[in-house]
Batch of 3 targets.
Target 1
Amino acid sequence: MRVRFLTSPLRFPVVLFLAAILFSCAQGNLPKKIESRPLEEKTESRDGLADTSRVEKIDVDITLSLPVIRPVTVTRGNKVTFQMNYMLSSTDKAKEFDVIEVIALSGAKMDLQLSRKASRKAQGSHVLTLEFGIPPDLPPGSYQATGIIRAEDTEKKGATDFTVKRRK
């Protein structure tokens, strides 16, 4: 398909642009040199000179495995164990992380934080584990245990379901 310039909707802007260039040439207003400016901001260093070095952003990655809860079906008054493996990594191999590990329980119109632990961790594999008791008065039904890992400005969540039954 061939597009003719005279019938193109771009005709007017293109003609206007070309006319502006020709007018600038005729007036002698074209710049002698085109300057480019860096995208980073210039900041003053301690000695008063401009510092244009870029600050490299360190990438942080959290990789989670699927969390496991055992047993999947539990009677009130018994214990369950939540476990989730995760890995911390960064582009800076020497990086250590300020990590917050949270385990939360939700279901039956309730949300409850079971555990919250802050620590400093090296890169590599880690395990988030919590054994907790099911209260004897917890209503039977389906519940969800969620593991939350926060490191730097990154957060990842992993959740698994389990069932609470009445005691026989």
Note: Confidence is low (pLDDT under 50) at residues 29-43.
Target 2
Amino acid sequence: MNVSLALRIRGLVTAVASVILLYALFVSASHLARVGLWLGLKPYEANTLFVLVDAVVVTGKLMTLNVFAPTTKRCGKRLMILAGVVSLAGNVGSGVIDHSIGGAGYGVLVLAVAFLMEHAIGKIRPAAAVTKAANVRKQATARPAVSSVR
């Protein structure tokens, strides 16, 4: 198994996880809209409530990428946690409003799977043996350094 195959498999897993995350966003949006209507929001406000909750989770996730400073990553993690708790409350609240334990449980399940998939995507790396073999091949084919001593 080589690094390019591992990266292709990672791309496939990321694509599948992205579909699951989009589904979770769709379900969460409908649950938050239900809660928003129950709280007395206008229909357009209730139907866009997910932007103020779930989009903040996505923004926080993007802020935790390795390209950012530790302070930015901490801020992103806090955003994810805060908005995630609000989203969880909305998803559970939707089931409670409908007097359905199953609906509340489904809201928890959707968010749990979404967070699990998001966590899994971030942990995918090629095996050490695969990357070590690729590094050895690169070193073997690398040109020797030209000496400036004459």
Note: The radius of gyration is 22 Å.
Target 3
Amino acid sequence: MVNDERIHESFCVVVEVRPIGRSGLVSEVDCPEVEDDGVPQPVAGYWVATPRGLHHLVNLPTSVEALPAGSWRFDLPVRAHHRREEDAEGMGESLDIALEGDAWCHRAMSWGGDEGWSSVCIGNEGFVSASWGWAGGSTHESDLVVLTSPPDLLPP
């Protein structure tokens, strides 16, 4: 077995925060040097907070009403949730929402030949952790480590 572990330091920044509609707030998060590792990484993109919950999207929505049904990360009020589905051929997916410490975590996994997963945990102060990756003939995994004051990683 070969273990080729690489550490790549990068950063994510909040590009913009602004209202959307009468009751929403959208934040754009950019992680310019963070690799997807074959699975869309769960941090970059548009985070939309509404009275109904928190959404994560790749593209900026035109309105709160235009939020796609599959974009939910957390419904409000947030509740623990577990769903697992598997077909007769062994292909499936699972979704877990759980409180871990002071953060709510959203974990999704799919399998059936290759496997893919993503996880993001969000607390009162923002992102707590995230990981994503896939496994097949090899394994590719990325972990986000949140630093409170990373002056050496911030862009000039």
Note: Residues 21 and 64 are 6 Å apart (CA to CA).
